[in-house]
Amino acid sequence: MSDLIIVALEWLVVAIMFAFLILFIVVTAPSQRKNISSLAIPLGRKDEIDFLVGRIKTGQSSAVIGLFSGEKTEILGFLTNSKLYEEDAENLIFSNVDMALRMNDTSAQFWEWAIQPLQDVPEVAQAYEVCSQNQFSDVSLRRLINVLRQSEKRLVLLLNNFQEVLHFSQLKQDEFFATLRSLASSYHPSPLVVVVAINQSLMDFHRETEKLNPLGSPYLNFLEGGITILKGLSEQQVDELLAEVSPPLSDQAKQLVKKFAGGSPYLLQVATSEFLKDSEAIEEFEVNFFRRMELSIERMLQGWSSSRCKTLLAVIQQAKVSEFEKELKELEAQGFIEEKKGQWQLRAEIFRKIVENKPQHAWCQQPVKD
Q1: What angle do CA 346, 352, 357 make, to 5 degrees?
Q2: Is the pLDDT of residue 31 over 70?
Q3: Buried-state track 42-60, b at ≥16 Cβ within 10 A, e below 16
């Protein structure tokens, strides 16, 4: 009889433990899902993030095209969050490289920096060492990528400010661009995924590099299926975004944010953050927002072509803009300007504040790009 009681007690303990296990799964699983879905996605960029994550998970390269360096930097940094990739995360290795900081690199120095995270991955550490001993030659890089493929690992190479490479005498070479394209496109899915963040269209980039290899294919053509353009939002989309801000903004705060940020998600995010820091900062908002964005927007405008810059100035000054049809559409797509009743006008008034803070001759110094 005592033996039966002992057996019964043992089964009771097992049943209780199993019940606690089921309870743990039920309680924690939704919490984990909540953590994944509630990641702080850059404001207004959920569709773009979903697209880029999908490309990375399937071994495909992409290009992020946008005018604000800060926004592109934020997006690339966000893409390194392992929670985005669920079960695929353990096989992904990220390397985030700002090309603006690699100005004096040779091709070998670039690759040494770019693939450095691989030296800490046991499956490919030896291949990395061989690559290093061979000064990151094209052949040794190809062998390394093949070892990555065989080990079912994937290197995600995030290249920020990629347009800067056009100013590097040692990297603006056929060999560098051709190697990058070849390594990223040799296998499908690829063990090397490249995500390029750039402030110009791929067509413009191709025009500036076609002299390096006049008879060859465009260097960045392997990105053409994965282009993500960081466009502006419609007024309705802006209203929907601002309605979701927590804690809620006052109606006056919303109007100020819309007036100065227009339809640019990045400007909206920065403007909104001013009120989240201090909900009573109505009177100080304009000055604080100006201070935060002045240097960033000045640098952006100074990097624009003369034609795009002159288009913005013409809209601000209500001057003739008929010769700038292409540039008007570009600025409209960014949420900076809009056409109402046949008249082009600013959506983001922060540009007027910054442009009018300096003499007119200080702007539009870059040559016109064909």
Answers
A1: 170
A2: no
A3: bbbbeebbebbbebbbebb
* Domain layout of the chain by residue ranges: 46-229, 235-362
The answer regarding whether domain 46-229 maps to CATH 3.40.50.300 reads: yes
Burial class (CB in 10 A: 0-12, 13-18, 19+), 295: exposed
Give the C-alpha separation, 163 to 46, whole Å: 25
What token pair was written down for 200? 């110009």
Torsion of CA 262, 265, 269, 271, to 10 degrees: -10
Predicted structure pTM score? 0.84
CB atoms within 10 A of CB 1: 5
List, in order, residues 6 or more apart from 313 with CB less than 8 Å away. Answer: 319, 355, 360, 363, 364
> What integer is the mean pLDDT of 70-87?
96
How confident is the model over 125-141, as a mean pLDDT? Answer: 96
Residues above pLDDT 70, as percent of the chain: 87
With helix as H, strand as E and coil as C, how does 248-309 read? CCCHHHHHHHHHHHCCCHHHHHHHHHHHHHCCCCHHHHHHHHHHHHHHHHHHHHHHCCHHHH
Decide if 315 contacts 331 (C-beta within 8 A): yes
Q: Name the percent of the chain lying above pLDDT 90.
A: 72
Strands ordered across the beta sheet of 192-198: 92-98, 154-160, 192-198, 62-65, 227-229
Length reported for the chain: 370
Q: Is the peptide bond before 191 cis (omega within 30 degrees of 0)?
A: no
